[in-house]
Structure formats: C-alpha cells, structure tokens
Amino acid sequence: MKKPTLxxxxxxxxxxxxxFKRCCLGTEDTQDATSTxxxxxxxxxxxxxxxxxxxxxxxxxxxxxxxxxxxxxFHGLSPAQMHRLLDRPFLSxxxxxxxxxxxxxPAAPILRLFNLLTNxxxxxxxxxxxxxxxxxxxxxxxxxxxxxxxxxxxxTRFSGINRENDFSDLHVTRLVAELAGLVRKYKGxxxxxxxxxxxxxxxGPAAIYSRLFRTYVTQFNWAYRDGYPELQFIxxxxxxxxxxxxxxxxIWRPQEFYEDTFLRAFPMVLDDIDPGLMSPxxxxxxxxxxxxxxxxxxxxxxxxxxPSSDDFLCIxxxxxxxxLLGDAVxxxxxx
Length: 335
Fold this sequence. Notes:
By secondary structure, the protein is mainly alpha-helical. It has helices at residues 29-33, 40-45, 52-67, 79-87, 109-121, 136-147, 149-155, 168-179, 194-201, 205-218, 232-236, 238-248, 255-265, 280-298, 323-328, and strands spanning 96-97, 183-186, 189-192, 253-254, 303-307, 317-321, 330-331.
C-alpha cells in the first residue's frame, strides 16, 4: 500500500508550528520528524488499513491530535496554535485580537515621532531635500525634542545629524508612515494623505497607532534597521514574542530570558545563519534582542527596554511589558 502523505501546508509533524513545506519537507529532517519514538512512524507500525484512504485518514487525525497538545518549548501553546500565530496573525481571532482602533489613547516612541513629523508637514506640506529626504533642520529639531538636551549632546558628540538617516528612528517612522499610506509625496512635497487626515479627525492616535503597528509588522522589513542576517522568521514570529511578554513581562527580566526562550522554541533558525566571527547562537541572540525587543517592542511602546549602561552600543538590557501591550494585542489563549 502506498505510504500516506502530509500536505505541504499542513503543520509540520516535528512540532515546530511551521508549515511542512517551510520546515522539514525535502530535508534530511523529514524522516526524523516522523520516526522518533512515540511519533507517526511508530504509530503506523501497529496499524492495519484496508485502503490508502483509511491510512490517510489515520495520519491526518494523528497529526491533528499531536498538533493540539501544548508544548513546553512553546510555553503553553500547541503547534497548531503556533502555526496560526506565525502564518495568520491577523486572522486568528480565537487566539488573539488586534484591534484596528484602540480603546485607549496610546503613547509610544513611534507615535511621538509621527506627531513631530505630521506637525512639521502641516497644512502646507514639507519640501524634501534634493535626495527626497526630510530636511536637516527638521531632523535636528525632532531629535532634540525626542531625546532631550542631555541625550542629544551624547548622541551627537562624535557625529552630528546632517541627514535623515542620521536619526534612524525618525527615518524609520517616515518610511513606515509612507508604507501605511499616511504620508506621501505630492507635487514635490511631503503631505498628509486624505486617509491620515480622516483618522486624525476621527479616532486620532488610537487609530493611527494601530495602522503603524500593522504596517511595521507586515510591510516594513525589520532587517533594514541593522546589519544582521535577513532572518525573516524573527519578524514572522512577532506574536510569539508578544505572547511571551504578556505572560512573563509583569516583572523585569534580562533580555537573555527572551533570547533563550526564542532559541528553544525555534532552533531551526540557526540553520539560516552562516558561520562568522560569532557563533550562530550569539548572532541569533543579538539579532533577536536588537530587532525584536529594542526596535519593535520598545519602539512601538509595548515594552520598556532599558540598557544596562549609557553606552550607545550596549547589548545588555532588562525588559518589562508596558500596559499598551494588553490594549494593542489581546491574547485569548486560555479562554
């Protein structure tokens, strides 16, 4: 009898939570995923089937049962739930609700910078530089307002803000706002879109924040902000990080806690890292903390991420969830 097969889009039987086609299919791990004790291969050995259809039905039911069991490495999530969070983050209301308009007036670094940007654009628009960027004076004024005098002096001690890219947070805010359809260029000037004006006149920051959040996780490439490998999976797993913060972020924890938890949950990501000066584990840990904790959770006001020193290149942080997390992302895992 022909051996029953798994569908390419089925959750992988290895329990990773990823689709079979994006995990063990076509690799040497395909056999491992179904041959370890207590898994599919062993279960099939004691079965007799009268037809391929019966065998296929058994495989389907077995995999479904396995994928409904919570996994320790997923901290209470089952592979099936993880599969939904990874592949359909905005279409899984049974697991998580991400409102398009918040019930609170949000406060977040990205929103502060967006307000500075929209105030500068105003009713008349804002003329860009010859290269199409924000004017230098605006970048300097925004940095001074955003950081404060003391931090501004420290940050510009060796290199001033002479172009938009020198103030990375503002640069990224402008890019995300454009991707979100809130800011655009018209007749050689930055202007606020009609959609942006409508949102500002209606629900205001409660709607603007949600638009920025969705754009940041779905359209903006996080790897653009750092020099680490692409590792798109880190961005795809943004809800798992927020789930961890909602579960463990009530107290301060070192960033190593979240690094280690992510690595235990998704060790396969190490296979995407080429050997270099640092080990794959070190590269993944540093990339994850900088890209997900600092530049995502911290920048969007979902967590407080405090460095252990004033050194701009500091790579040690302590992390704690902020109230905005529960308003912007509402998990229903245990309901």
